[in-house]
Prior knowledge:
8-stranded mixed β-sheet, 15 strands, binds magnesium ion
Amino acid sequence: MKIICIGRNYSxxxxxxxxxxPTEPVIFMKPKSALLFPEKPLYYPEFTDDLQYECELVVRxxxxxxxxxxxxxxxxxxxxSVGLDFTARDVQQRQKEKGLPWEIAKAFDLSAAVGQFIPxxxxxxxxxxxxxxxxxxxxVQKGNSSDMLFSINKIIAxxxxxxxxxxxxxxxxxxxxxxxxxxxxxxxxGYLEDQKLxxxxxx
Length: 203
Ligand code: MG
């Protein structure tokens, strides 16, 4: 399986990091070794002094596909959750300044936390879902999928031009504004609507 992540998919978040609002989706990937399963801790990596959270909606691919048209995209995913795209922001900043790839800042071991998946039923409007993140019981990020620059279906159409999507692949759909730094012993809780799907402690 592979983990495909979208960057700068909410204009307020692009602005908070002084990035341009993109005209096409910004894509990067994480390897399978980046997966952090629900309830597992993340050990603060020794190569960064600025580990940050990015809470995101995550969809799970349920059908293999390539060149998927946007109108058929809903047939290719059937479950959704919240996840954390952990980022070594200081490392990322250095890579950006040098024009180098982000993997060491974004794709390191256990950098992709994912919560319990919820099946997407006919009553769920994936283009109008609220999600939020609490750190130590304080609300730090909240988003709604209607604010995405590129909808889930548009992302799937775009990504599948370049990469065949396979059953089990995960797509992290980008983070809203409010990203921030973490410390050892922080407790993170991710919610889809009112349902807690994810919990991670930093150790
Ligand atoms: Mg992200």
